[in-house]
Amino acid sequence: MPPAPFPPGATVLTEQHGVVTRSQALTLMTRHQLYRLVTSGRWAHPARGVFVHHTGPLTPAQRDWVALLAAPPGSVLGGLSALAHDGFTGFSPPRPAVVAPMGANPCTYDDLDLHWSTYLDTRDVHPLRTPPRTRPARSVIDAASWDVTEKRAREIVLSAAQKGIVAPRTLREALVRRGMCRHRSLIVELCLDAAGGIQSLPERSFDEIRVEVGLPPPERQAVVRRTDGRYYLDVWWQAINLAVEVHGIPHMEVDQWDGDLLRLNEVAIDGRRTLVFSSYAIRRHRSTVVDQLRRSTS
Asked: Could you tell me whether strands 273-278 and 242-247 are parallel, antiparallel, or unpaired per DSSP bridges?
């Protein structure tokens, strides 16, 4: 059945995409009128104490509002559900993610992923935005830590940083408040990656690989002068004609990525052999990096 017209003065219905609690509905009508709307099939009653002004399929925003209003008092949207309302696209949670205050009574509504937290003050929850939700930095940390795979956790953090949804500083601050969580060490490394390139890596990480392969100390940030400008190589061994480039988050930006590819083409045209690794690979796929370095120097 098509949505019923909003009652006069029903601002809350407009703000909440046609989803209201029982107490909100009773500020607009009598109990009898609310009962008639539900029994006549004009309004839906998807959860205890929650009503929707139509009986058709719920929109994504309405699913979020139903989950939020069905959850314990003081709950907010979190993770990817919160990020979707802040303009973060490309990742869709299977069900609305809701963060409830620790110690609150659980709800019986099952179309949501309910998480608990002792940290839901204004540092992590925006006091004015609707629907109520965690701030982007906390949302990114939660979304990454709730996922069971490192690969997807990495994709969430990198994508949010690349799109400007969060800044590295706010990510680090949110992680400190969040405390222990899944993938914490990975998230710390990704925060460092946001600074980009070889400078964001612990120097010993690459040096351990270099020593394992048996390579001498390289020249870092080596200057390559050309008639059309000056380039810098992250790592350069002149004696074996090998350069290594390490890319962090800033290299993922379209303009810089395009420029980096053109720069590496120029380096290759000059006859320099070049290997390119992500800073993530240096730390997390060490055996592959070692293997490729060995084969390039054998």
From this structure: parallel
